[in-house]
Structures are given as C-alpha cells and as structure tokens.
C-alpha cells in the first residue's frame, strides 16, 4: 500500500518558497516565491534581494531614512525576481509567495500572465499598497488564495 501522509501540492510549493527565502540577506524580511505551471512543474523561483551585479555590501539594508538611504530603492521583491528569472512564458501559471504581493509586484504578476496567487501572510493588508494590489488583481481576474495554515521549514545553516 502506498504512503498516505504526503505533502499537498500547496504545502510542497509553499515549502519551496520558504526555502528560497533563506537566500535573502535582508535582515528584516525574507520572502520567497515559486512559479508553477498547471502540470505542477516549477518554472521559476525568486527571493528578495539586490539586482544581479549590485554588491549587497555597498547598498543599504536599513528600513529607515530617505528612499536613497534605505533598502526600498534597491531591493527586488521575490515575486519580481521569480518573474524576471523565468526561462519561459508564465501565462496561466500560479505563484506561491510567503507574503502577499505589493502593488508593484501585482502589476508584474498581471503583466506576466500568472492567473493565481497562493500566499500565506497578509500582514500589510491594511496598507494602501496592498489594497491597490488587491484592486488591480481583482480587476485583472487574478485569483488569490490564502493558505489556512503556515508551512514550517527548519533550516540549520552553519557558519
């Protein structure tokens, strides 16, 4: 008889998103994203960090200060990284993301052709950026689905 207690697709892909988030060097927020096609194949993965070629020792990681002096002008969000890293079209794909997408990522998700967002945390739900995101996603017909639980991954990173 086959084993019955296996991960659901949702838990599997959200687990990959969390694992990807461990690549982020952001001291405050680590977010991961995984784009998956209808055949349950991983198309692309991303996490929040600086653009390729930008030395993360030369740019700020601070949350406070002017735009120029904080991380916000420089960090590429996990969703956008996953979209930009994709080797093929994302038309009709799903994106699993540990934190609900901001308005800027929502625009990229819509433009890329992704049709469903599966997310866990919506801690910024009351911000104008996330309200704008949800408004655009609804208008574009992108489905959103929050997982009813948090997928836990423990990674022991030495050194």
Principal-axes shape call? globular
Say what oligomer this is.
single chain
* Content of β-strand: 15-25%
Element string (H = helix, E = strand): HEEHEHEHE
For the largest sheet, list the strands in their spatial order.
Answer: 2-1-3-4-5
**Helicity level, as a percent range?**
25-40%
Number of strands: 5
Q: Helix count?
A: 4
Rg, Å, rounded: 16 Å
List the uncertain runs: none
Distance linking N and C termini: 42 Å
Query: Residue-averaged pLDDT, rounded?
Result: 94
**How would a crystallographer describe the biggest sheet?**
5 strands, mixed
Secondary structure class reads: alpha/beta
Structure description:
The protein is α/β, with parallel strands linked by helices. It is built from four helices and five strands; from the N terminus they run αββαβαβαβ. It has helices at residues 9-21, 78-84, 103-112, 128-140, and strands at residues 32-36, 42-47, 94-99, 116-121, 143-146. A five-stranded mixed sheet has the order 2-1-3-4-5.
């Amino acid at each position: 008889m086959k084993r019955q207690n296996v991960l659901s697709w949702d838990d599997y892909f959200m687990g990959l998103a969390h694992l990807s988030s461990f690549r982020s060097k952001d001291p405050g927020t680590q977010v991961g994203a995984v784009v998956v096609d209808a055949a349950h194949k991983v198309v692309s993965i991303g996490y929040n960090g600086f653009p390729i070629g930008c030395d993360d020792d030369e740019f700020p990681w601070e949350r406070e200060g002017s735009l120029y002096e904080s991380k916000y002008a420089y960090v590429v969000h996990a969703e956008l990284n996953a979209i930009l890293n994709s080797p093929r079209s994302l038309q009709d794909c799903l994106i699993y993301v540990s934190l609900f997408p901001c308005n800027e990522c929502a625009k990229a998700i819509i433009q890329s052709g992704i049709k469903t967002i599966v997310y866990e945390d919506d801690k910024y739900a009351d911000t104008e950026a996330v309200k704008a995101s949800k408004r655009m996603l609804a208008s574009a017909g992108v489905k959103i689905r929050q997982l009813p639980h948090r997928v836990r991954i423990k990674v022991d990173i030495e050194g």
